[in-house]
């Protein structure tokens, strides 16, 4: 069970958002992720949707914000882990570039809802650098690393790029 404060203002904001925007649970939860930092955004979104008894569920592929991106992140993350398994290194860097259309929609949504609890989609993706660092016990480097990986995420075509610097 997710323990989120029983704040009617939050629930009214959730209802306003869902009546105006077709958002998947990942994106809805990301708008309120700072309410419960140790909980995944999808679970927060699902909880909030149920709490206000909003019956319509939007699949990630039909989400007007991420257009399915949120459900694909784990796939890209696993590609990175798989590509790193045969190499030895002390530092690495994972970055992401988000399509301007997605960023603009996110900014519009945040401005219209005035949510003080949101996490940007870019921050969510950059979390995977920290997750990889902990899993592999390797430091993240802001400087040039032997291995750099990039997420290039666009509305129509999602790509993964591995850049090896030797």
State the separation between the terminal residues, measured CA to CA: 47 Å
Alpha carbon gyration radius: 17 Å
* Overall mean confidence score, pLDDT: 77
Sheet with most strands: 4 strands, mixed
Name the structural class.
Answer: alpha/beta
Count of DSSP strands = 4
Percent helix: 40-55%
> What does the overall shape look like?
elongated
Lateral strand order in the biggest sheet: 2-1-3-4
Number of domains: 1
Order of helices and strands: HHHHEHHEEE
Q: Helix segment count?
A: 6
Name the poorly predicted regions. Answer: 151-166
| Strand content range | 5-15%
Assembly type of the chains comes to single chain
Characterise the protein shown here.
By secondary structure, the protein is of the alpha/beta class. The protein has one domain. The protein has six helices and four strands, in the order H-H-H-H-E-H-H-E-E-E. The chain has helices at 8-20, 25-30, 41-51, 69-84, 100-113, 121-136; strands at 91-98, 139-140, 147-153, 158-164. Strands 2-1-3-4 form a four-stranded mixed sheet. Strand 3 and strand 4 (158-164) form a beta hairpin. It is elongated and about 50 Å long.
Summarize the structure.
The protein has helices at 8-20, 25-30, 41-51, 69-84, 100-113, 121-136, and strands spanning 91-98, 139-140, 147-153, 158-164.
What is the strand and helix layout of this fold?
Elements (H helix, E strand, L loop, with lengths): L7 H13 L4 H6 L10 H11 L17 H16 L6 E8 L1 H14 L7 H16 L2 E2 L6 E7 L4 E7 L2
Parallel strand pairs: 1-2, 1-3
Antiparallel strand pairs: 3-4
